[in-house]
Amino acid sequence: MGINLVxxxxxxxxxxxxxxxxxxFLSVVSMDSPVPVNSAASFRxxxxxxxxxxxVSVGSDETTLWSPFDRIRRVAVPHLQEGGPDVLAVHAELxxxxxxxxxxxxxxxxxxxxxxxxxxxxxxxAARLFDPMDPPIYVKDETGVDQAEPQLFPxxxxxxxxxxx
Amino acid sequence: xxHFRSIRTRRGRKKLVGGPxxxxxxxxMDILVIILVFMLKSQAATTSAFMGADGAELPYSRTQxxxxxxxxxxxxxxxxxxxxQKVLYFVPQPGQPAPGEPPAEAKxxxxxxxxxxxxxxxxxxxxxxxxxxxxxxxxxxxxQARDKSELLRSKSSARDEAGEPLPFDGILAIQSDKRIPYDxxxxxxxxxAVAGYRTYRLLAIRYEE
Lengths: 165, 209
Known about the structure:
- The complex is a heterodimer of chains A (about 160) and B (about 210).
- Chain A has about 160 residues and is of the alpha/beta class.
- Chain A has four helices and eight strands, in the order αβαβββαβαβββ.
- Chain A is elongated and about 85 Å long.
- Chain B is of the alpha/beta class and about 210 residues long.
- Chain B is about 30% helix and about 15% strand.
């Protein structure tokens, strides 16, 4: 006399149907950005140290890469003909800056008021992640061994929360 | 006249000789168990606390970071919600459908590489203060949620090295439609900052290359 498998089969079919019903087929991902904090004392310190403070400003016709302390040459990337920033060109310019400053991890992004969320996310991707075709950038660790940087500028901060500047 | 029986009839009769037909369920059980294990495994690997919100078409991103659970705000073309509770509605624009109604003309979805036109959204005057920077209903909801979270942490047995309650993590996930202009997002971020939140977590859909 064999085991009666029919109730077990019913259970399994019900479980699979329930899991298919509750499954999410969209995988949501996230990008963290800290709140920018500034004070008069930290501003004085930063002015003395002249950090890179790489800034990407989205204008009406072009996207500008610049440093408030003039650590890099100001680069203007014209928008695409269809409108919106040329994200690939911006990424290429950011890779050049990273080659100059391989230990730099922070970037300030300044979208204009009409920049859609889609473009903000695309710019953050371009600023944070390497493309497979990008040249590897190495940084020496504590032991003096060259380590490939896993990300371009992983710490993206929004620079104009108080209004357009 | 000779009587010819079909082969099918003869086969059917032969089977019935041995008693009632029995299904072989063991192989089917094997298949179902494998499917169940596969689904359990894939569900455990991709579990996210965030679901797609109605009316919010998220942009795509190449990042791989799966967001852990946190307080979250949803911004659509019609409303803003915090923790699945709608806190405000935008001013309906001319030609725009009323809240809850489908668009009059269904437009084909834009390709991911096409530039997205930002929406024109307007707040009700009573919903803003501090020169139009702070969103009042959202601020109230954020402060309430932060207070509740801090109260729960103070009651919890989990403590830091100094024996103090664990600090409020202050992370706000922002789940926004891809056409929402930065001007609206900036107000959300400013409001979160003054309500004591210290990290913004921008959500998107994983771009499969």
